[in-house]
Design a protein that fits this description.
The chain is α+β, with helices and mostly antiparallel strands. The chain is 34% helix and 27% strand. The radius of gyration is 30 Å and the shape is flat.
Length: 260
């Protein structure tokens, strides 16, 4: 009897060791799964943006044509590649504002007798985030001294936060969809376009766009579709239409409505 019990224990020992080993493996895999989930969540960061003023060597730049006063404000998100993108862009657009070798405004005024004070402003703002799609706007304003009014432009910038890439219109559209989307855009905004005597063949597709609450909004420059007083026209393509021409990964998550 004792010999029989001894054999049972000998069989039980390997089984116990196997069970402990398997349990150990399961305990190790759980933290790994948690880490993978956390890594995936961290891949798409939540934008927390603050507008800050750009430090300039001097408040204005002067030459023989006059002096230009700059007001430059960028965004601070604490996401380095986004912050660097906009600051680099501002420096490229208005290099004179960062010229440390320029003469002082007083010296230039006396020597060159500038004709007036021009204004040049650039503001960057955060608009919205829809999971991995984050949209910003670069607002620029230029006023030439003596002009009746200044000119402005809003350029929208959308990033894919997972790839850290700015998305051009061609990036989000399915191949060879430009003509189709222009047709759809005209149909969706036909009343306004007809009121402004814009025929279907005259409507060009703008590459300046942003993700709105109910559709993709295409923004047109001053004077292109309407008068200066009407500002920059915006034509909306509803998401239920855009899903036919936009790549699925570049559409925001939308509710699924029943057919009833």
């Amino acid at each position: 009897m004792a010999q029989k019990m001894s054999k049972q224990w000998l069989w039980a020992i390997p089984l116990s060791i196997a069970a402990i080993t398997m349990a150990g493996c399961q305990e190790k895999s759980a933290p790994q799964q948690e880490k993978a989930t956390e890594a995936k969540a961290k891949a798409v960061q939540l934008i927390q943006a603050k507008v800050i003023r750009v430090d300039l060597p001097k408040k204005q730049f002067c030459d023989e044509d006059g002096c230009t006063q700059y007001d430059l404000q960028t965004i601070q998100t604490h996401i380095a590649w986004i912050d660097d993108y906009f600051l680099t862009r501002i420096k490229k657009d208005v290099p004179d504002a960062f010229d440390q070798t320029q003469p002082s405004p007083q010296t230039a005024t006396e020597a060159e007798a500038p004709k007036g004070l021009n204004q040049n402003s650039i503001y960057v703002r955060f608009i919205s985030q829809q999971y991995n799609l984050a949209t910003f706007v670069i607002q620029s304003y230029v006023y030439a001294a003596g002009a009746a009014h200044g000119t402005y432009h809003n350029e929208y910038v959308t990033f894919d936060l997972t790839t850290q890439k700015r998305l051009a219109l061609t990036d989000i559209l399915k191949p060879n969809m430009e003509a189709k989307i222009a047709e759809q855009l005209y149909d969706a905004n036909s009343n306004w376009l007809q009121q402004h005597d814009i025929t279907r063949d005259k409507l060009q597709l703008s590459d300046n766009y942003f993700y709105g609450a109910n559709g993709i909004v295409f923004v047109y420059p001053l004077y292109e579709l309407a008068s200066y007083a009407e500002g920059m026209p915006e034509l909306k393509l509803p998401y239920n239409v855009a899903k036919d021409v936009v790549k699925p990964e570049y559409l925001p998550s939308l509710p699924q409505y029943s057919a009833e």
